[in-house]
Specification:
The protein has helices spanning about 1-20, 20-30, 40-55, 60-75, 80-100, 115-130, 140-165, 170-190, 200-205, 240-255, 255-260, 290-300, and strands spanning about 215-220, 225-230, 265-270. The chain has about 300 residues and is mainly alpha-helical. The termini are far apart. The protein has twelve helices and three strands.
């Protein structure tokens, strides 16, 4: 055993040259105290050093690529404001109305980042900036507008797939109705900031600008003109409905000139919506006649059958 250790000591200078500094120091220290170290311990240390050398020789390029890939995977999506989404959609529809060749390619094998669709996105981006008076005045960054474009592209593509399948039509109709109510909420919430309401009126109305308080709407075309057929909520008082109409006019007033013509004409239908007021609806919004009628119906339903 002593002979084997002595042989290892004689080779130690050559081994030190092939080892990294820290590993080499540890090896030299063990060699200097070799008389007190069993041969099994020496073999174990040599194996450990061999493993460390394998780790050191790992390609830096591959490590860098993996790290970069991890960073991309962890990167959060840039939040897109409702205002930016609406502006992007409005510009897309306006451009589509004036140019039949315009629009995203929604083919199954076509990506949003494809060359053709990237050109469409750039055109939309320019349109949104122009709508706000140029790049300097536009409140949205390029990344946010592109994020809104990608979201709208996905919506259009999903709609196209549903159309091809011809399934779940009722769900599609319901989704569109809900979407219109949400869009109207966003319009009115923006308009109330500049509306000539008193502070008290704004305080009362603002919390009610939610989908539960919006009329049901369906899109239609009459005499070549796009319209929205509205089924009013029979339980709402006239003064609250009037407040919403004033906010619609205020929103229309603040729109850029080229977007004002994109608004649909609202047509009131005689048949009201069957939706009922939310449980938290304040009493000043509900018509007393509707409340009395609802209470009578409830009493009839709970009455005994004779």
């Amino acid at each position: 055993m002593n002979a084997e250790i002595t042989h290892a000591k004689e080779e130690s200078p050559l081994r030190k040259k092939r080892l990294q500094p820290k590993a080499g120091k540890r090896f030299v220290s063990i060699m200097e105290n070799s008389n007190a170290v069993p041969i099994q311990r020496l073999v174990k240390v040599l194996n450990e050093l061999s493993g460390k050398m394998d780790n050191i020789n790992t390609s830096p390029t591959s490590q860098s690529s993996a790290t970069k890939s991890d960073r991309i995977g962890r990167r959060k999506k840039l939040p897109v404001s409702s205002e930016c989404s609406n502006a992007t959609r409005d510009v897309y529809k306006t451009l589509l109305k004036g140019d039949v060749t315009f629009g995203y390619n929604l083919g199954k094998e076509v990506s949003f980042h494809g060359t053709e669709n990237e050109l469409t996105t750039k055109r939309i981006t320019r349109g949104v900036r122009d709508a706000y008076g140029g790049k300097e005045k536009c409140p949205f960054s390029t990344a946010e507008i592109e994020g809104a474009c990608q979201r709208y592209f996905k919506s259009l593509r999903d709609s196209e797939r549903r159309k091809e399948k011809g399934t779940n039509q009722r769900h599609a109709v319901t989704s569109r109705r809900q979407s219109r109510r949400r869009e109207r909420c966003i319009r009115l919430q923006k308009a109330i900031k500049t509306a000539s309401f008193t502070s008290l009126a704004k305080e009362k109305v603002r919390p009610l600008l939610t989908p539960d308080y919006m009329s049901s709407e369906e899109s239609d075309i009459e005499n070549g003109e796009r319209t929205s057929k509205v089924r009013h909520l029979s339980w709402q008082k006239k003064k609250f409905r009037k407040a919403k109409e004033v906010l619609e006019e205020e929103y229309e007033r603040t729109l850029p000139i080229h977007l004002k013509g994109n608004k649909r004409k609202r047509v009131q239908l005689e048949i009201p919506s069957r939706r009922k007021p939310p449980a938290s609806c304040p009493s000043w919004v509900i018509r007393s006649s509707w409340r009395d009628s609802a209470e009578e119906e409830e009493e009839e339903e709970q009455g005994d059958i004779s």
